[in-house]
Amino acid sequence: MQIAGAIICALVGIRLLQSIASAFQTQSIRSASANRSLALFDEQIAATRALRMQREDQQLHWNGYRKFRVARTVLEAEATTSLYLVPHDRKKLPAFRPGQFLTFRFQLPGDKSGEQKSVIRCYSLSDAPREDYFRVTVKRVPAPSGADCPQGCISNHINDNVKVGDILDVQAPRGDFALDPHGTSPVVLIGGGVGVTPVLSMLNAITECGSKREVWFFYGVRKGADQIMQQHLRDIADAHANVSLFVCYSDPSEVDTTDDGYQRRGHVSIDLIRDELKVTNFDFYICGPGGMMESLVPALQAWGVPKDRIHTEAFGPAAVRKPAAETTTVRGKQSKTKLTVKFSRSGKTVAWDPTADNLLNLAQSNGIAIDSGCRAGSCGTCLVAVKEGSTECCVDADCPDGSCLTCVSVPVGNITLDA
Ligand SMILES: Cc1cc2nc3c(=O)[nH]c(=O)nc-3n(C[C@H](O)[C@H](O)[C@H](O)COP(=O)(O)OP(=O)(O)OC[C@H]3O[C@@H](n4cnc5c(N)ncnc54)[C@H](O)[C@@H]3O)c2cc1C
């Protein structure tokens, strides 16, 4: 009897343990599935929020030109002025991606009395995205030394004439030279001269969102009087351990010192970058004059930085051109074969002249009007439909199928353009 009782007790105990274990199992399955559901719920909320923000942002974008009032002007350096622009309709602004630019249309007196001409120019946003204002920073462009031609039209107009209260026509922010400020990969931001503006926007955006991402900021200018945001950059470097700042003066004046002005004498060079970084695993964002881009971009590639981690912007025709090896055989063909370019609307057919460099120059030198803006393949103003034949783009720019950005395109064979 005792044995039977002990067996029954043991069986009851085992059963009890089994049910406790099963209860625990159910509980942990339940809590695992609850965690999964919660995670899924969080993901759905995040996705919905992202979608809503994207939708709101799309609603805040606009087509064509919108009126902006100049709320403030600041002389940043000897020949450089910042404009603070607020929307005249007082509505919110879309969150642009740091590095993007604005396209402006100015109405200036034309050649004949009483006539107005529109002039289109692009200027990079130089501050982090804000809901209430945009900032651009514009440097005067002088006439080339020794040349008998007028100084830069809009950059001097902005520095001389644009004042608080003026209304300007502005397109929505655009451009692919842009950084995600919430990303985590280490970045190197390089600005030469006024080309510092888009990388300054990136730096401000990264530091303002509290990111601990590693940032190297190289800024090359001739001398202290040309440098913008001196104190601002020093404050950022002092307040953010993740930011390393290198300001290089190529031709410092007597009053410039390394104490509070620049860190290095000379250009922002591959030697300096290599010595400081030691390794190549960064995303590089570079904007500067032709000489800087032409020396740094191939040097970074030669050092082993993959091409897709080098992001560039140029402010004019000095856009980094694709190497000859990447541009099919058109450049060779151009000089050997006689190509014709037909402009169907104007009813003109002209021989392609390789010294024109691009289809926009060819058109303009033959009296065919095509609106243009940046001359760097960025703003899209000179886009023209290609009715017959094909063209080749000499920089990394996006053209919709069947069209070409005439400021950076050349013909491949005989072509007909809708211009
Ligand atoms: C995406 C992008 C972003 C940009 N961001 C900025 C920025 O943040 N800040 C900034 O300052 N700039 C920026 N730029 C450059 C800017 O758009 C203008 O190109 C620049 O301000 C010069 O314009 P301009 O009207 O003053 O000069 P233009 O009138 O276009 O003249 C340019 C040059 O040509 C010379 N020239 C004029 N007429 C003749 C002639 N008949 N023959 C020969 N030469 C002549 C002028 O003297 C001058 O040296 C950006 C450009 C792009 C594409």
Overall description:
The chain contains eight helices and 17 strands. The protein is of the alpha/beta class and 419 residues long. It folds into four domains: 60 residues; 95 residues, Translation factors (Elongation Factor Tu (Ef-tu), domain 3), CATH 2.40.30; 127 residues, Rossmann fold, CATH 3.40.50; 91 residues, Ubiquitin-like (UB roll), CATH 3.10.20.30. The strands form three sheets. A six-stranded antiparallel sheet has the order 4-3-6-1-2-5. Strands 10-9-8-7-11-12 form a six-stranded parallel sheet, sandwiched between helices. Strands 14-13-17-15-16 form a five-stranded mixed sheet. α4 links the parallel β8 and β9. About 2% of the residues have low confidence. Bound molecules: flavin-adenine dinucleotide. Flavin-adenine dinucleotide binds next to β4, β5 and α2. The site of flavin-adenine dinucleotide has 27 residues, from β4, β5 and α2.
List the helices and strands and how they pair.
Blueprint: H1 2-60, E1 66-77, E2 80-87, E3 101-109, E4 116-124, E5 134-139, H2 153-160, E6 167-170, E7 187-192, H3 196-208, E8 215-221, H4 230-239, E9 243-249, E10 264-265, H5 270-277, E11 283-287, H6 290-303, E12 310-313, H7 330-336, E13 340-343, E14 348-351, H8 359-365, E15 383-393, E16 403-405, E17 409-417
Parallel strand pairs: 7-8, 7-11, 8-9, 9-10, 11-12, 13-17
Antiparallel strand pairs: 1-2, 1-6, 2-5, 3-4, 3-6, 13-14, 15-16, 15-17
The structure holds flavin-adenine dinucleotide.
